[in-house]
Write a structure and sequence with these properties.
33% of the residues lie in helices and 12% in strands. It is α+β, with helices and mostly antiparallel strands. The chain folds into four domains: 64 residues, no CATH class; 71 residues, no CATH class; 116 residues, no CATH class; 98 residues, no CATH class. Helix 6 crosses helix 7 and helix 11 packs across helix 14.
Length: 410
């Protein structure tokens, strides 16, 4: 982003789209002119974005938003998003009850949602940016089935836009594609499992619906959970199932997910406690805070971030499924999902999915994690340890996840 002094005023420009005004040689740069932008490959677009990432972050420019002209801004309590994109990116915030739309403007109009030209959204949040709860006389916001599906559809459309704009590959090898996918032939449904996104709980649900319906899902051992369900990658009819079965996945803010993985798998473990420290410590030595550390010493959070944020494909240890980027697990640009939930909306999304799967007896007791690690997105105990370079390296590594699943870093 730069400033041009023209006719006594400064004009600021989007990175990659500089225009001169009032000069003898005016070059008006269309932001994403296909004559130029259309020449770039996926890798070239990402390389440019990573290089100019500080400008996009500092000056509040959204890369994909400026390409597509679509904006989705619908803030709810605890940062939840309810948005349905319709007709060229306009936002419909709909709280439905008995088929009627309830407008959630309460308590002296503290929330003003203004729909403007070409899908622009002005959201005026008053009183410390709090969002008014949209149900009268209720403590919590209950999102209807229609809203939950609309939110998923909006995210799926956003993913399609990003995939097209950023030219993500739309094909991957069969085994790579199906390795983290499990299926139920009876209900004709496929679940793409992302570790640290309630995956153990969802696997317990699938075990219940594919096995003994009287099973107590919370009592199913972790060993059985991760070794019982059929893997799509080894099914002879994989392509047919991918084409005809309904598919769902659940995502999570990238930083919260990798922090949860660190706390669960690496923090304060002794060498004899787990395979993960043993596996990682052998490859981590050059990323140590102190090169004199011994292999058996505990792994710090900064060492972990440096280890997983290295550019390129990385080693098998750096590509472990617990911190592998989510888009490399479920390939949303190659597979169109019927439902994409978010960990941040786990209650509402799990209720929708359990109804969808016909397991309504679990509605009030969605299986809890055996070892829950609640990762605060910017917990100073962890995030505060990172340097500028480490934060930027992490963001660059996980940039596709931030973009595809519509998560803001700042």
């Amino acid at each position: 982003m730069g400033g041009n002094l023209a006719a006594g005023k400064v004009v600021y420009d989007v990175p990659g789209a500089v225009a001169e005004y009032g000069s003898s040689r005016a070059f008006h740069a269309s932001r994403y002119d296909p004559k130029y932008f259309g020449q770039l490959s996926h890798d070239e677009i990402l390389a440019f974005y990573v290089k100019y990432l500080p400008d996009f972050l500092l000056f509040d420019y959204d890369f994909v938003r400026h390409i597509t002209g679509r904006v989705v801004v619908a803030l709810q309590k605890s940062g939840r998003v309810v948005a349905a994109l319709q007709e060229a990116g306009r936002v419909v915030v709909a709280l439905q009850k008995s088929g009627r739309v309830v407008a959630a403007l309460q308590e002296a109009g503290r929330v003003v949602v203004a729909l403007q030209e070409v899908g622009r959204v002005v959201v005026a949040l008053q009183e410390a940016d709090r969002v008014v709860e949209a149900l009268q006389g209720a403590e919590t916001l209950v999102v209807s089935v229609e809203d939950t599906k609309a939110r998923s559809d909006a995210l799926e459309q956003h993913i399609r836009n990003v995939c097209k704009t950023m030219r993500f590959p739309d094909t991957v090898s069969n085994k790579t594609m199906g390795y983290y996918m499990h299926f139920d032939e009876g209900r004709k449904v496929i679940y793409c499992s992302i570790p640290k996104v309630a995956s153990t709980s969802w696997k317990r649900v699938l075990i219940k619906i594919t096995g003994n319906p009287t099973d107590n899902v919370t009592a199913i051992s972790r060993y059985r959970v991760h070794r019982t369900l059929p893997m799509l990658a080894f099914d002879k009819d994989m392509e047919e199932k991918l084409r005809t079965y309904k598919k769902f996945m659940v995502v999570r803010h990238p930083f919260e997910r990798i922090l949860s993985a660190y706390r669960d798998k690496l923090e304060d473990w002794e060498p004899h406690d787990s395979v993960f420290p043993k596996m990682v410590k052998k490859k981590l030595q050059k990323y140590r805070d102190n090169p004199n550390k011994k292999e058996g010493d505990n792994i710090t959070f900064t060492e972990y971030i440096r280890f997983i944020s290295q550019p390129g494909r990385g080693t098998p240890e750096q590509r472990n499924e617990h911190w592998l980027p989510m888009h490399e697990i479920c390939h949303p640009c190659a597979i169109q999902y019927d439902f994409i939930g978010k960990y941040e909306n786990l209650k509402e999304d799990s209720e929708y999915l359990l109804k969808w799967l016909g397991v309504t007896d679990l509605m009030d007791t969605f299986p809890a994690a055996a070892r829950p690690f609640h990762a605060s997105r910017y917990d100073p105990k962890y995030f505060g340890q990172l340097s500028h370079d480490e934060i930027m390296a992490f963001h660059a590594k996980y940039l596709p996840d931030f973009m595809l699943f519509n998560y803001g870093f700042v």
